[in-house]
């Protein structure tokens, strides 16, 4: 299987040869070494289920391991632990152990329940659950069940271990200041880094701190008070708290909905006010345009008044009409008792005074007939 690891390094080996001039020549660069693992598509096997190798065991040095070993001879790295409540901190430590060398076969030892309860304390997961969790980690190639608390030379030789990976902090246990002291003195220790902010103890602390919350959560999911080791009174108390929380959530939901409703009403009212202002400005403008001081109505009234005055006032005589003196006199006959030097005739009829008698040609005819 040709699976590639994300942490594989590109090796370069230089062969230098000095000639007569003292110059060096650089050799060819080697490619990536394929990862030797079976944990990418299948769970990692248990060590006691594998057939032991017939070849004699010879450890590799740190220099050779870092430079790179042949594909048929991976560097066998061992990492042990409890791995209770398997989390990302465990996975990161195993990833670092897998990436220590270009060609690594990672063996993980998991301690049993009896050994763990004796030296460290009670666990959340039992040993079978912890074994299975490690088997399904992608960085693990082999799992050792019931791993020892202190690594002996016989154990290292039986599992053909080249290096032991663990964080560099001294691990005091089983009456020793550092259980990895003899591994470090033998030059077989490969340090890794711890992941800050997460550990099994931190997770358990969170559960203990929020105990009531998790108990109520599991009671809702169908667990009985007996399974949760909860008394009858506490069970009723948790149920009552859950009902109170439901009422609080409903009240909170109503408040949020009412706030949303009020917000929507405010938005609508603002829109209506803006539209009303726009319409009112338009109405006022139209009103002033019609009824204002210089509006259309005033011009209409002025125009109508002018037409009315023009209709009721008399028409004046044209300024170019001829005067009485300029008119051609009609032939008239005066009475015989008036002399030729009599004064001119009286003014027109519309003036006051005596009226003159003018005798026309028609009047003479009537006198002759008489």
Low-confidence stretches: 1-35, 350-361
State the end-to-end distance. 166 Å
Radius of gyration: 61 Å
Strand content: 5-15%
Number of E-state strands: 5
Main sheet overview: 5 strands, parallel
Strand order of the largest sheet: 3-2-1-4-5
Number of helices: 11
Estimated structural class: alpha/beta
H/E topology pattern? HEHEHHEHEHEHHHHH
Short summary:
The protein has 370 residues and is an alpha/beta fold. It is 41% helix and 7% strand. The chain has a five-stranded parallel sheet with strand order 3-2-1-4-5.
Please give the structural blueprint:
Blueprint: H1 62-67, E1 75-81, H2 88-98, E2 104-110, H3 113-119, H4 127-135, E3 142-145, H5 153-158, E4 163-167, H6 181-185, E5 189-192, H7 200-209, H8 211-220, H9 232-291, H10 296-312, H11 361-369
Parallel strand pairs: 1-2, 1-4, 2-3, 4-5
Helix pairs in contact: 8-9
Explain the overall architecture.
Helices cover 41% and strands 7% of the residues. The chain has 370 residues and is an alpha/beta fold. α2 links the parallel β1 (75-81) and β2. α8 (211-220) packs across α9 (232-291).
Keywords:
370 residues; alpha/beta; five-stranded parallel β-sheet; 11 helices; 5 strands; elongated; disordered N terminus
């Amino acid at each position: 299987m040709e699976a590639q690891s994300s942490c594989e390094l590109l090796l370069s080996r230089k062969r230098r040869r000095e000639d007569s001039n003292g110059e060096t020549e650089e050799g060819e660069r080697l490619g990536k070494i394929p990862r030797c693992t079976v944990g990418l598509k299948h769970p990692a096997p248990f060590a006691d289920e594998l057939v032991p190798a017939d070849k004699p065991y010879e450890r590799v040095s740190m220099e050779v391991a870092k430079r790179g070993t042949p594909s048929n001879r991976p560097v066998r790295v061992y990492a042990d632990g409890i791995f209770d409540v398997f989390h990302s901190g465990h996975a990161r430590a195993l990833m670092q152990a897998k990436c220590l060398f270009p060609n690594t076969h990672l063996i993980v030892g998991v301690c049993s329940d009896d050994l763990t309860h004796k030296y460290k304390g009670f666990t959340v997961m039992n040993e079978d659950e912890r074994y299975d969790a490690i088997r399904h980690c992608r960085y693990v190639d082999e799992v050792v069940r019931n791993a020892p608390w202190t690594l002996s030379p016989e154990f290292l030789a039986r599992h053909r271990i080249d290096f032991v990976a663990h964080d560099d902090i001294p691990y005091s246990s089983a009456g020793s200041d550092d259980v990895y002291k003899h591994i470090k003195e033998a030059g077989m220790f490969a340090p890794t880094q711890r992941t800050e902010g997460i550990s099994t103890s931190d997770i358990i602390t969170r559960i203990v701190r929020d105990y009531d919350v998790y108990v109520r959560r599991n009671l809702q999911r169908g667990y009985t008070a007996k399974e949760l080791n909860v008394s009858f009174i506490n069970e009723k108390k948790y149920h009552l708290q859950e009902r109170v929380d439901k009422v609080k959530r409903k009240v909170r939901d109503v408040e949020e909905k009412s706030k949303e409703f009020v917000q929507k009403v405010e938005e609508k009212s603002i829109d209506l006010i803006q539209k009303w202002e726009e319409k009112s400005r338009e109405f006022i403008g139209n009103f002033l345009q019609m009824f204002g001081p210089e509006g259309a109505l005033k011009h209409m009234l002025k125009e109508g008044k002018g037409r009315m005055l023009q209709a009721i006032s008399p028409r004046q005589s044209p300024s170019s009409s001829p005067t009485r003196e300029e008119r051609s006199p009609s032939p008239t006959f005066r009475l015989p008792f008036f002399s030729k030097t009599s004064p001119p005739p009286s003014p027109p009829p519309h003036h006051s005074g005596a009226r003159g008698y003018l005798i026309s040609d028609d009047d003479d005819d009537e006198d002759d007939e008489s």
